[in-house]
Amino acid sequence: MSDLSELHLDALAEIFSIGAGRAALSLSEIVGDEVHISVPSVQVINSEDINATTLSLNSGRFGAVSQYFSGPFNAEAVLLFTEEQALKIVSDMMGSQMSLEELAEFEHEAMCELGNIILNACLSAMADILHFTLESSLPNYRVASADEILHRLKENSNQPYVMVLHIDLAIEKRHTTGNLVFLLSSTSLTNLVIHINQFLGSIS
C-alpha cells in the first residue's frame, strides 16, 4: 500500500500529539478550564477498506468538520464526533446551561471553530516539524449518518488513502472520543513519507 512503517506511524503520532497539545491550550482559553487532547494512535489504510468499525461509527448521526489543506502534502481533513458529543462540546465552549435544543442553534459556528483549532494545530505542527508550508480553506460543518460519512470518504478515487487519528478529548472532566481523518492522494502520501524520512534522518 505505502512505504509507511511502524516507525513512520509512531513519528506521526508524536507530531500530531504536539499539535493536539497546542489545540488543547487554545481550547482551554475558550472554555476557561483545562482541556486535554491526545492522539493515541495513527493508521493509514486504503479508502476502499474503511468501514464503520475502523472509525468507531455506530448507527447514530455524526458531526463532521471538514477542511482542505494544500502544499507538498495535500489533504482533505475531517474531524468526526457523534452529534451528541458535538453538542456537549458546544455546551462546554458556550459555558452556558442551555438545553440541547438551544445549543443546536450555535452548533455549526462552534463546531467550525473547534475543527479549525484542532485541524490547524495538528497540521501546523506537522508543517513546522517536517519543514514545509500548508495553506488551508475555511472549515465546513455538517451532520450526517454513518453510511453518508463512509460513502463520502470512499467516493473520491483521486484520494485512495485514508490516514485515521483516534482522538481523546477531555473538557471539564468530560471524556470524548473522536477521529481525525485525512484523505490522501498517492502523491501526497509519497511526499509525506519523504518528509518523515528526512525528519527521522535529522534526529538519528
TrEMBL record:
Keyword Disulfide bond: no
SUPFAM superfamilies: CheC-like
Keyword terms of this UniProt record: Chemotaxis
InterPro entries, per the entry: CheC-like_sf, FliN/MopA/SpaO
Keyword Secreted: no
Tree of life domain: Bacteria
GO biological process: chemotaxis
Name of the protein described by the UniProt record: CheC inhibitor of MCP methylation
